[in-house]
Design brief:
With about 700 residues, the protein is an alpha+beta fold. The protein contains 14 helices and 38 strands. Strand 1 and strand 2 (about 10-20) form a beta hairpin.
């Protein structure tokens, strides 16, 4: 017999079914009490689906997070992203941002577990800086769960970087693959936010381009993603983003930072995912390593990246190596913010305003990059770099961090760095060096273990009249799936201009049009479409079939108008001899119609043979009987058959195929041709003249 007991526990109703003994009931009560204490409100709410279309569950989702919570273990959550993750725009970033709300949700729902919410978000930085600081700001905390949010700042970075779009996917893969390698039990969740220029894209159910590159990696690595930006965009009335945006976003001129109401929508979408994974879970409580798939990109932006924090000892060493006019300062001494707070509060700053400064550093690796803070009016324009005994060179400031030197031979190097400022006063009073990043490109994660050998390149057929297309080849090494795509030089197409009418030409008036490239849409000129001057239908020769004449249309400039600009409609049976009509109806650049006549004439004959005789020629012609009454043989001493030298002999029977031309001049060359004729309905019809043959008389 099955008994059902309703237990009231922490204000929540739990239905527990068990069999047989009361002792078993008590045991189950104890077990379930312990379970609820460790999991908080695991059995709280029923599964919700309000934001289901914005949630993409993949792989194990939060299986390992659930296992940690089930065991009552301490849980480390890292929030890794930009200013939207940090909480810019919220009244209180620690409590009102999506990060703060998610962190509090874990604390409230799992109050018997120590929840460590770690804010590793840094504003105005994308996945490039994320890859460089990953070890320092994420892996060092040994997280159990990481929320990653970089796609929106990658969009902003792409406005200032001249790199392929796929580069943002490579940077993002660097982050997730290294988390997977170093912390295989760590769960990862990607979140995509929005900004005002992406509303139409989001409302169409799409992500912006940089987010799409991230999503490719999420799919390959089975990482769940939550499109919280789409969830918020769908709250906006289509076509009214400008008017309704302030309801959800903080007015700081960026159109990217939500206010409390906007952050609440971001949180609600994430909360639904968390509830469906952790509250209404079907997990068994066991943990399992995430699998590491085959790489998507050929190389990653890693390589045992070492962070060198700037401290008193490093500044002192810089002075010993030749660095000048720098000392360690706290950011507050300089009246500036501390956006890179995860790298401490101190940095190397100028001793005296407007004095030239330099920093000298020893490092071991193949690349050195710098992390510095400088306010808008005091930004570094470029750095002058001298590595070892190499020539000094200039390096423009880049998206954080600025790579000062790369591709060096692995080993110990000394670099001297001199910043040059964009402001006219050369004011360096708000310039603070926070850290350096050292890479070893020998340790970069690579997809292949061999040098590629490529076969024949095949065109991708994507050239346009704006730029060259590309061509692609596959590596010839056995079992290698690497393709290489390069620019197909010389494949650029020429513009194909067509006239797009703004006013169509007619039989009586000129029209107007614009010359537009049909390939790229480029405008070239405004042109006149000449009016139609003549419409003619060529006569046909009888062939026993229904015939349509060839029509020639010319404009007022004497140019032939293409047949693509008109259609033909013929009348009558058009098989036997006679006169017929064809209607020409114009289209495209022209409008109107005109009906013209054409004839079907007897079939053509030809001269088969000429035989010379004394003052005469014997003519043999090709026999034609259908739709033919007889023949006319024309002969002349002029190959042009001029009127004064030309005569005609009529053969009145279509069955007679020979005739003799008499009374000719002796030893004179004559030109001979033939045509057929027939009378129909009182009108005589002639074929065209045949080609001529010539012969000299005897």
């Amino acid at each position: 017999m099955i008994l059902t007991y309703v237990l009231l526990l922490k204000g929540r109703i739990l239905k527990v079914k068990f069999r047989k003994a009361i002792s078993l009931v008590l045991a189950l009560v104890i077990v379930f009490s312990v379970e609820v204490c460790s999991l908080g409100s695991v059995f709280a709410t029923s599964q919700t689906n309000q934001y289901q279309k914005y949630i993409y569950k993949r792989g194990q989702d939060l299986k390992n997070t659930y296992a940690k919570l089930s065991a009552g273990d301490e849980l480390n959550i890292v929030y890794f992203g930009g200013s939207v993750t940090n909480g810019t725009g919220a009244t209180n970033a620690q409590t009102d941002s999506w990060r703060g709300l998610v962190g509090q949700w874990f604390v409230d729902n799992f109050n018997n577990v120590t929840i460590n919410n770690i804010n590793s978000a840094i504003g105005a930085t994308g996945s490039k800086f994320g890859a460089y600081r990953l070890n320092h700001d994420v892996i060092a905390h040994k997280p159990d769960l990481v929320f990653v949010e970089f796609a929106i700042n990658d969009y902003y970075d792409n406005q200032g970087e001249d790199i392929p779009l796929a580069e943002y996917g490579m940077r993002f893969e660097t982050i997730v693959r290294n988390i997977r390698k170093e912390l295989p039990l760590c769960d990862i969740v990607t979140v995509y936010t929005t900004e005002i220029s992406h509303v139409n894209t989001n409302q169409a159910g799409e992500l912006h381009d940089e987010a799409k590159e991230h999503e490719k990696i999420c799919v390959a690595y089975n990482i769940p993603s939550i499109h919280i930006g789409r969830a918020l965009a769908d709250k906006i009335t289509v076509g009214k983003a400008q008017q309704e945006w302030p309801e959800y976003f903080y007015d700081d001129g960026t159109n990217v930072h939500p206010n409390n109401k906007g952050y609440k929508i971001y949180f609600d979408a994430i909360k639904e995912y968390l509830e469906n994974c952790l509250i209404n879970s079907s997990y068994d409580g066991s943990a399992k390593n995430h699998t590491l798939p085959k790489m998507v990109n050929e190389y990653l932006l890693d390589g045992n990246i070492e962070v060198i924090d700037v401290d008193e000892a490093l500044v002192t060493k810089s002075q010993e190596l030749g660095g000048k006019n720098l000392k360690l300062k706290h950011y507050s001494e300089m009246n500036i913010g501390n956006p890179f707070r995860t790298f401490g509060d101190d940095g190397a700053a100028s001793i005296e305003k407007n004095e030239s400064v330099s920093f000298a550093l020893e490092f071991t690796g193949t690349e050195i990059a710098i992390l510095e803070t400088c306010e808008n009016d005091n930004k570094v324009e470029y750095y002058s770099i001298k590595v070892d005994n190499q020539e000094e060179k200039s390096v423009a400031r880049q998206m954080t961090p600025t790579v000062l030197a790369t591709g060096l031979e692995y080993g110990k190097h000394t670099v001297i760095i001199r910043p040059y400022f964009a402001n006219s006063a050369k004011d360096n009073s708000k310039f603070l060096i926070k850290a350096f990043f050292v890479r070893d490109d020998r340790a970069v994660t690579a997809k292949y273990d061999h040098e590629h050998v490529y076969g024949n390149y095949i065109s991708d057929k994507n050239a346009s009249c704006v730029k060259n297309g590309t061509k692609t080849a596959k590596c010839c090494i056995k079992n290698c799936d690497k393709f290489k795509t390069v620019v197909d030089l010389g494949s650029k197409l020429t513009h194909k201009f067509v006239v797009v009418p703004t006013k169509k030409a007619t039989l009586y008036k000129n029209g107007k049009g614009e010359k537009i490239c049909s390939l790229c849409g480029r405008f070239d000129d405004v042109v006149t479409i000449k009016k139609i001057k003549s419409v003619k239908a060529n006569d046909c020769h009888y062939n026993g079939k229904v015939q349509t004449p060839k029509v020639t249309v010319k404009d007022s400039a004497g140019k032939t108008v293409s047949s693509k600009y008109y259609t033909l409609k013929c009348y009558g049976k058009r098989k036997n001899l006679g006169s017929y009509k064809v209607k020409v109806t114009f289209k495209g650049n022209y409008s109107g119609s005109k009906t013209v006549k054409f004839k079907i004439n007897p079939p053509k004959s030809s001269i088969k043979k000429l035989t010379a005789a004394k003052k005469s020629l014997k003519v043999k012609i090709t026999k034609k009987t259908k739709q033919v009454k007889g023949y006319e043989i024309q002969y002349s001493t002029s190959k042009k058959f001029s009127k004064s030298t030309t005569k005609i002999l009529t053969v009145s029977s279509n069955k007679k195929t020979t005739a003799t031309l008499k009374g000719l001049k002796s030893k004179k060359k004559y030109y001979v041709r033939v045509r057929t004729y027939k009378t129909s309905s009182g009108k005589k019809y002639y074929s065209a003249w045949s080609g001529y043959k010539s012969k000299k008389t005897k």
